[in-house]
Amino acid sequence: MDGLYLYCIREKNDSSIFFIKGIDNKNEVFVLPYKEIEAIVSGISLDEFDSDEIKRKAQENLNWIKEKIVLHEKVVEEAMKKNGKVVSVIPMKFGTIFAGEKRLIETLDEHYEQFKTALNKLEGKEEWGVKMYLTGKGQIEETIKTESEIIKEMESKIAGLPEGIAYFHESELKEAVSNEVLRKINDTKRNIFEELKMNTEDARECKILEKELTGRLEPMILNASYLIKTEMVDEFIQSAERKNKELNPQGFSLEYSGPWPPYYFGEQNV
Amino acid sequence: MSEQKMMHATNATNLADILERVLDKGIVIAGDIQIKIADIELLTIKIRLLVASVDKAMEIGINWWQTDSFLSSKAKEAEIENENTELKKRLEKLEEKIKSA
Q1: Distance between alpha carbon A45 and the CA centroid of its chain, in Å?
Q2: Average pLDDT over residues B67-87
Q3: Which of A32, A79, A129, B76 gives a 20 to 30 Å CA spacing to B6?
């Protein structure tokens, strides 16, 4: 053990026992206090966690890197929990390593005010994620064909044309329908994003995850993160569930997850 | 208080979420060592992680290994090698027959 792997930073806290092992699956996770904050760390071998070594392992053994990333997350999650409540943390990016305790303390000192401010801002708030998927494009198309005035007008116009000419207008109609479908999808997700934003402290849209990553057949159309006051979380969940029920028959589904370590809002505030 | 559902890597979406957050979104402070995994590497890592299950991959249309020239040329090499060994064996047998005749 010659280096320290840093998981996250939080306010000084009297629960300092970690049940989970560190990133190397061997050394204990422990707390290194500094003034009013503390760093959650574990000892690591600098040979094993050398940057080139990690790159090589990431290429050769995916399970290795996957396991390390999940371990990182789990330590941060444990640091967030205290008697069933959520404690504010500032989660670090994967692979933040210090040569020793002295170097880490120097860094905590250097960034002390930033960390304090960020923790104050996150105090009593939780990060939750919301994802929307497109489950029934056909359904949306049907709705548009029966509801959109423009489309109905185009259809009745084509119906009155001789076959040969109608053929050329068919593709125009198709394009118009698919444009309307896209508009409907965009409007719906925008409305949901904004409606869920009410009664939250902050919200941001995140990267849409590809099908290859989600492992799902339905495309993701919205990936959002919200920062919510703890006392408002129940209401947020209820509203997300209500929206999901409303959206299902329209060809959309909505899922929420949390509380997450504030990866998105921590970043914004440090 | 709501039931606190903490996230675990129990399904692909959660795993993708965790990868995205831990690798891309965590706070960067200058440590003595910062492990950097470039974006492209990251993406291949992510995809290959999920291609653990071939059936699943086929279902969602990731079948690049079937058209991957490296992989398919590997397959061809192996085929040629097998043919070679087979031919050598037959040649040896013939030579023995000639000798003994």
Answers
A1: 31
A2: 61
A3: A32
Chain B nearest-CA distance from A188, in A, is 22
Question: Which residues in chain B are closer than 8 Å to A50, comparing Cβ atoms?
Answer: 33
Contact B33 A237 (CB under 8 A): no
- Interface predicted TM-score (ipTM) of this complex, two decimals: 0.83
> Residues B22-65: pLDDT tens digits?
888 888 877 777 776 666 566 666 655 655 544 455 554 544 44
Same domain, A29 and A77: yes
**Contact (CB<8Å) B22/A58:** no
Q: Is there a single domain that holds both residue A89 and residue A153?
A: no
Rounded-to-integer distance, Cα A257 and Cα A69, Å: 19
**pLDDT at B37 (0 to 100):** 66
> Same domain for A175 and A242?
yes
Residues A113, A136, single domain; the answer is no
The interface residues of chain B toward chain A in range 46-75, judged by CB-CB distance below 8 A, are 46-50, 56, 59-62
C-alpha A229: how far from its chain's center? 17
CB contact under 8 A, B41 and A207: no
Which residues between 138 and 197 in chain A have a beta carbon less than 8 angstroms from any beta carbon of chain B?
A: none
User: Are B32 and A91 within 8 A, CB to CB?
Assistant: no
Helix (H, G, I), strand (E, B) or coil at A2: coil
- Encoded tokens for A146: 């029966």
Does A245 have pLDDT greater than 60?
A: yes
Residues of the domain holding A145: 127-269
pLDDT tens profile A165-176: 888 888 889 999
Host H or E run for residue A10:
strand A3-11
